[in-house]
Amino acid sequence: MSRPKSRRELYSEATRAALLETATAMFAERGFARTSLDDIAVATQVTRGAVYHHFESKQAVFEAVFDALEQDMTARVSAAAAGQPDAWQAAMAALDAFLDLCCEDRYGRLCWLEGPLALGWARWMDYEKKYAFALIDGFLQAARAEGLLAPVPAPTSSELVFHLLGGAGRIIAEAQGADRRALRDDCAVTIRRMLNGMRA
Amino acid sequence: MSRPKSRRELYSEATRAALLETATAMFAERGFARTSLDDIAVATQVTRGAVYHHFESKQAVFEAVFDALEQDMTARVSAAAAGQPDAWQAAMAALDAFLDLCCEDRYGRLCWLEGPLALGWARWMDYEKKYAFALIDGFLQAARAEGLLAPVPAPTSSELVFHLLGGAGRIIAEAQGADRRALRDDCAVTIRRMLNGMRA
DNA sequence: GACGGTTACATACTCTGTGTACGTACACCG
DNA sequence: CGGTGTACGTACACAGAGTATGTAACCGTC
To answer: Where is the HTH tetR-type domain (chains A, B) (predicted)?
Structure first.
């Protein structure tokens, strides 16, 4: 384990965490483009120098925010899928957990709306290959292994499902407050039907 | 009809068209963010002043490019769907035409990859409501009217199909050259299956 | 407990690119 | 042929990202 941290290290970690917290809040509220590093710095009561000490660039700040949210998402969705009798039911449980998560401002807006805008599609997809796409591809491969899946082309079908779920995330994230639950349920119904079209 | 144009008007229209042409090419090749208005102006052998004379802003340039591509797409896809025996077969013909179009650099990259980055999701969606989404929603409503559709929630299911097709567009547009046709066909197969899940 | 080095920031500057205000030359119209 | 408007060109303002450098507090070492 890591040896006891010095006071300096603790302070440093605290400002870094504070920067990430305000960055998360402001990116979610006003979007990546409309939030300057100075905004983040001032709101955290430091200067832009501090930001550039802790992060390489504005994009790096977003990536740190983004990565944390995706890790949390992976953990929660995996937990929801655990202990289901077969791959298909696990996938459906995961789907419900995912759609719930999309109702939360930070995850829905940041990962599905702001993510591509901030990182560009290519880099955003690099991250997603580790997170959302990896989960989806895992479920589909498991379903295929259990003979539950119709013969659909392997990597492309996972990508399409990924984009379908991303679309759901965006629909939900763009709505406000109470509408979200209704949209979430509409998405759940429709997506289930569409995925059923892929069953054996 | 418009009266015969003066030489000045003709020149002006020509430079505007030239600006749109180089803008289309450069946005498709290097992306919206990495293309400056000066790049476009120089490549067209004018100055940024000319650009700002014809367009209100950089975003307005992109919108002009984008709108033209979407109009072309609407026309081509509608033509492909015309004269089919029922709504479902019309939709399938439209799907094939759409996926073909996504193989073309300008349409696929500009409308589905660069569009949201350049305009932001909200404004991009405003446009799409007039074009791709309108088409999709039209096909689904027709299918519903003909009793071909399972009871899926009306506006949301159209949006999900829209995002699904957008995902396909992105998958195809991000690939290079020869891969595209293979991916296009994989997408066609998978999407058909998923849409079949929505049939009555 | 003074001391040199390192860390965690602050300050000040550069650079790129958008947008804007204004200048100008040439085509049209009387 | 002189006035007017249009189609640009020129010059400048400004924001925000990134960089180079300064500095003060901390930390291990003797």
So the answer is: 13-73
